[in-house]
């Protein structure tokens, strides 16, 4: 794939300088002046590209690799062809992520859609809103009464910031996002179409057939360095707050119900649904399309497999999977037994057909 105009190559970084920045070691000092300008997968890398490998499965692709440099662990360095420079790192995946940010900084968060500087014509900012210097607000954005937005924050076109909302510094609020009843920290990224602070799903049985809506008067608290993917929804609390902890990363199309509390540095993948009042500890990883029951607790550092159904508490540090979710060793044993029984039935059926 040729470089495209959406993410053009960098002007160039010397490998010697890159190694020093990443805390990596250049295997051959003679390559220190070689320059990299972009990142690429191994199989289509060309001159100026930087790649990384994590295992020996890349051996075949390396034979024809034309990259200028490859990041890898010392144990894999011998696999790299002699014409490719090697940057040695004990954490090559992490080092590659940092290198990508250096080479393609504009891809790290939503970019402005227009060239407008400051408050663009066509944006509406309530007279009682407080906007610090250095904020950019694009056309068709609406900033409500009493809202506060910190220096360096960008508000994309068509975004709506509700009355009284507070947004910290150096945030990116992308096009078409709505934020209401929320306090947002510093360096937060909300991708296009995120919905924050709408009322949660709460109803009581009616006196007649039907349901009566329960008032939702809580807030959403989003701490520093959180990133929330496109079209994810974060409901405000009923009477308490919904909280997203510092450093947590949430993928696209995730539903977080009212009063949910998510800890620091969690990773939540696309399609996850978290029901109201669930408590999720620090460092929890939740795979795609998992469902989390309400009013349960998931302990610090737990890992939940994709498409699991979590109906009860999970202890800290445990790995769970399946429906209903259970310890991973039990889940894998059950799956192996099901596979074995299925194979036996197929064999018996084949024998009967003969």
Automatic annotation (TrEMBL):
Q: Which reaction does it catalyse?
A: a UDP-3-O-[(3R)-3-hydroxyacyl]-alpha-D-glucosamine + a (3R)-hydroxyacyl-[ACP] = a UDP-2-N,3-O-bis[(3R)-3-hydroxyacyl]-alpha-D-glucosamine + holo-[ACP] + H(+)
Is Lipid metabolism a UniProt keyword of this protein?
Answer: yes
What is the annotated role of this protein in its UniProt record?
Catalyzes the N-acylation of UDP-3-O-acylglucosamine using 3-hydroxyacyl-ACP as the acyl donor. Is involved in the biosynthesis of lipid A, a phosphorylated glycolipid that anchors the lipopolysaccharide to the outer membrane of the cell.
Task: Give the matching PANTHER family.
Answer: UDP-3-O-ACYLGLUCOSAMINE N-ACYLTRANSFERASE, UDP-3-O-ACYLGLUCOSAMINE N-ACYLTRANSFERASE 1, MITOCHONDRIAL-RELATED
Q: What keywords tag this UniProt record?
A: Acyltransferase, Lipid A biosynthesis, Lipid biosynthesis, Lipid metabolism, Repeat, Transferase
- Out of the domains of life, which is the source? Bacteria
Instruction: Name the family.
Output: Belongs to the transferase hexapeptide repeat family. LpxD subfamily.
Q: Which Gene3D superfamilies did the record assign? A: Hexapeptide repeat proteins, MurE/MurF, N-terminal domain
Q: Does the keyword Hydrolase apply?
A: no
The record's section on InterPro entries has: Hexapep, Hexapep_transf_CS, LpxD, Trimer_LpxA-like_sf, UDP_GlcNAc_AcTrfase_non-rep
Molecular function terms in GO for this entry? UDP-3-O-[(3R)-3-hydroxyacyl]-glucosamine N-acyltransferase activity
Enzyme Commission designation: 2.3.1.191
Q: In which pathway does it act?
A: Bacterial outer membrane biogenesis; LPS lipid A biosynthesis
Which positions are catalytic residues? 258 (proton acceptor)
Q: What is this protein called?
A: UDP-3-O-acylglucosamine N-acyltransferase
* HAMAP family linked to this entry: LpxD
A UniProt-annotated Pfam family: Hexapep_2
The annotated subunit structure for this chain is:
Homotrimer.
Any idea where the UDP-3-O-[3-hydroxymyristoyl] glucosamine N-acyltransferase non-repeat region domain is? 33-101
Q: So where does this one cross the membrane?
A: none
């Amino acid at each position: 794939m040729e470089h495209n105009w959406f993410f053009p190559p960098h002007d160039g970084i010397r490998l010697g300088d890159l190694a020093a920045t990443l805390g990596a070691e250049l295997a051959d000092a003679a390559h220190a002046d070689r320059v990299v300008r972009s990142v690429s997968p191994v199989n289509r890398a060309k001159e100026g590209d930087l790649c990384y490998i994590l295992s020996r499965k890349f051996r075949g692709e390396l034979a024809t690799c034309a990259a200028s440099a490859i990041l890898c662990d010392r144990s894999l360095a011998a696999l790299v062809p002699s014409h490719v420079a090697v940057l040695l790192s004990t954490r090559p995946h992490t080092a590659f992520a940092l290198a990508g940010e250096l080479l393609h900084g504009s891809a790290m968060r939503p970019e402005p859609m227009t060239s407008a500087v400051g408050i663009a014509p066509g944006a509406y900012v309530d007279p009682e809103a407080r906007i610090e210097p250095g904020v950019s607000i694009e056309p068709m954005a609406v900033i409500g009464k009493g809202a506060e937005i910190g220096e360096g924050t960008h508000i994309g076109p068509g975004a709506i910031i509700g009355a009284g909302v507070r947004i910290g510094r150096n945030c990116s609020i992308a096009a078409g996002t709505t934020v209401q009843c929320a306090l947002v920290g510093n360096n937060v990224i909300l991708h296009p179409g995120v919905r924050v602070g709408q009322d949660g799903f709460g109803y009581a049985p009616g006196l007649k057939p039907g349901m009566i809506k329960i008032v939702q008067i809580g807030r959403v608290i989003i701490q520093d360095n959180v990133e929330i993917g496109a079209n994810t929804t974060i409901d405000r609390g009923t009477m308490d707050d919904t909280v997203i902890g510092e450093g947590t990363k949430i993928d696209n199309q995730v539903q977080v119900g009212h009063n949910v509390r998510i800890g620091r540095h969690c990773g939540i993948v696309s399609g996850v649904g978290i029901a109201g009042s669930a408590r999720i500890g620090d460092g929890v990883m939740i795979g795609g399309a998992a469902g989390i029951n309400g009013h349960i607790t998931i302990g610090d550092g737990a890992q939940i497999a994709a498409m699991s159904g979590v109906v009860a508490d999970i202890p800290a540090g445990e790995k769970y999977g399946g429906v209903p979710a259970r310890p991973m060793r039990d889940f894998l044993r059950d799956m192996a037994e099901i596979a074995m029984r299925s194979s036996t039935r197929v064999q018996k059926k084949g024998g009967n057909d003969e």
